[in-house]
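Subgroup meeting minutes
Present: P.N., E.W., G.H.
Scribe: E.W.

1. P.N. recapped why we're keeping a running log of single-chain structure predictions: easier to compare across weeks, and new members can see raw inputs and outputs side by side.
2. G.H. added today's entry (192 aa).
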Amino acid sequence: MSPVPDPDRGSPSDFGPLSFQLVLLRRMADHQPGLVEDALRELGVDRSEMREANRRWQAMLHSPRRRGAGARYRSVLGPPETVGERRVGDLTFEALTWPVPLWPDLRFEVLAAPGGAIWNEWLVRAPGAAAPALRTAGDLLPWSCTVDEVARAFAPARPMEGTAPTRWQLAFTTPEGERVAEFTWGLFQRLL
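Output recorded in log:
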């Protein structure tokens, strides 16, 4: 039995913010199934709705009539909360962010290159939200920090290829020694 949808979250059937959160959770379920189960209860949905949201998302991504990524995110998440510029090396990207109700201290960020190609899409800390204090490997708790926060806390860090799309790995040194962390959609999942 599905809960009555909250109009601010959308519902899995209309593919709005709620369904998008389920897509994020689907990829995280491989590494943090307990946290995902808790999140599904909080959202008032079950695993079958998460799988269906992911199926529909994949169909959107691979449709012959697919929209550009920027238009796709706007149609699913609505107008961005913020639009700005971000420089990475010599390149300037348009940075768009949306709130993610499941993680109120985070924002979903899309970096678009000139011409609209998406360079990156992940969770980042919301402006003004406090980041966790990261000093040791023990401070790295699942879903507590982002790629950028870990890279800054344990600089210099070395980005590595992830095991699947939307996954990143980061190699760095803590007081305890060399570590590799895995992130999904930019959110810390586990130490390898």
